[in-house]
Amino acid sequence: MGINYRFVDENLKKELVELRRMFHRFPEAGWMEFLTTCKIVEYLDRLGFKVFYGQNFLKPGQRWGQPLERFVKESMLNAEKHGVPRGFIDEVKNGFTGAAGVMRFSESGPVCVFRFDIDGLRITESTKEGHRPFELGFSSENENYMHACGHDGHMAVGLCLAKILSDNRHRLKGEARFIFQPAEEGCRGGQAVAESGFIESADYVLGGHIGVCSLKKGETAAVKGGFLCTTKLDIHFLGHSAHASNSPESGRNALLAAAEFVLSANAIPRHSGGATMVNIGVLNAGEGRNIIPDTAYVEAETRGETQRLNEYMKTELIRRANGAAAMYGCEVEIEMAGEAGGFASNADLKAAAKEICGAMGEGVSYAEKNFGASEDFSNLAVEAEKYGAKSAYFTFGSAVKGVHHSPEFDFDEDTMALELEFFARAAQRFMGSED
Ligand SMILES: [Zn+2]
Ligand SMILES: [Zn+2]
């Protein structure tokens, strides 16, 4: 099955794989992408892009879901050990990771934003037989972290796309902006990017994902909807510790409050208005066997098919957190850790994508799908709408091993060439000069 490649040659195909494997070997979780950002900045700089990072990229403001201090320290040390200069780390720490690369082709013309996410996950990668990254020797060298969602591939495609546009700069008009977004996982970084100023006066905002929506290899889909609205909350239960047998009555048991909350959160009634979800992903509590636990920490999320449904879930969740705390005489602090809304790709861009797929040959087919998950690309799209920009989100079918966010996850590396060709053709279509 042939794909008609106009922009992606054998060298680029090789480079895609090399870049993907390089990023795969050093996954970093959201807001801690120190080495990752450094590599991106170096690469874009070499291509002649105007590169923005640190506080020149993201403004102080919305910093949802900052990681725990001990994880940040550990990640900074690891990055430094792998050769990232201390000065660079200082510029991007405290929630200023990620980068933007801008190239202006002509005074007038469209502004095209390409967004790629860069974070890995706190997952320990599989060392089982049959897990290709392990067998081929490019599995994670950053203990406890893994690129288990394909963002390593997204970065490879983003950088190679930047290369294609840079090589073709004399044939393009307008301005290309590449956004390498931190902390997509948990929908934390999107709002910071939306507020960064890099969406301002955009005409097109494009993003995508490898291997979701149950597509087969060679299938490309424009997401027609189904982005689930979501809210992520960090919940701290604060009690009072006491001796477990000498004076249990003077304690306030935060662990029990949290446990009560977790069970009742999962008992929120479903809603007749559509799909809703709740998940408690983290519960940490207690210091020792004979101590009444005085703190408990919970990471929770709600989702809903619509904003209203997610609001319902969020309100019910918060009611239960307050109720459980009151029951055990504890205090509760609830922090917003991420949020994203619904999204549907623009109709004109869907039509363009269909034509592009048609022109890419019989190895590529086009579909329109519901996303069925959450993605904070929607926060960028909301901002883009203020400027009348058209936004679209695409998914690229890949023979995926394991499921996303599992230790066995891997995708078919051929997918990257298809995705790159697709975006290069889209860039040519939107920014190509007349001659
Ligand atoms: Zn993910
Ligand atoms: Zn992802």
Structure description:
It is a single chain. Helices cover 34% and strands 21% of the residues. The protein has helices at 10-25, 34-46, 69-81, 86-92, 132-135, 151-167, 190-194, 254-265, 307-327, 347-359, 377-385, 414-431; strands spanning 50-53, 99-104, 111-117, 175-181, 204-210, 219-225, 229-238, 276-285, 295-304, 331-340, 365-370, 390-396. The strands form two sheets. Strands 1-2-4-3-5-12-6-11 form an eight-stranded mixed beta sheet, with helices on both faces. Helix 1 packs antiparallel against helix 6, helix 6 crosses helix 12 and helix 10 (347-359) packs across helix 12 (414-431). Bound molecules: zinc ion (ZN) (2 copies). Residues 149, 151, 209 line the site of one zinc ion.
- Strand-residue proportion: 15-25%
Query: What's the helical proportion of residues?
Result: 25-40%
According to DSSP, the number of beta strands is: 12
What is the SS-derived class? Answer: alpha/beta
Largest sheet: 8 strands, mixed
The CA-CA distance between the termini, in Å, is: 32 Å
Order of helices and strands: HHEHHEEHHEHEEEHEEHEHEHEH
Shape: globular
Mean pLDDT equals 96
Bound molecules: zinc ion
**Uncertain segments of ≥5 residues (pLDDT<50)?**
none
Using only CA atoms, what is the Rg? 23 Å
Lateral arrangement of strands in the main beta sheet: 1-2-4-3-5-12-6-11
* Count of runs of 4 or more consecutive helical residues: 12
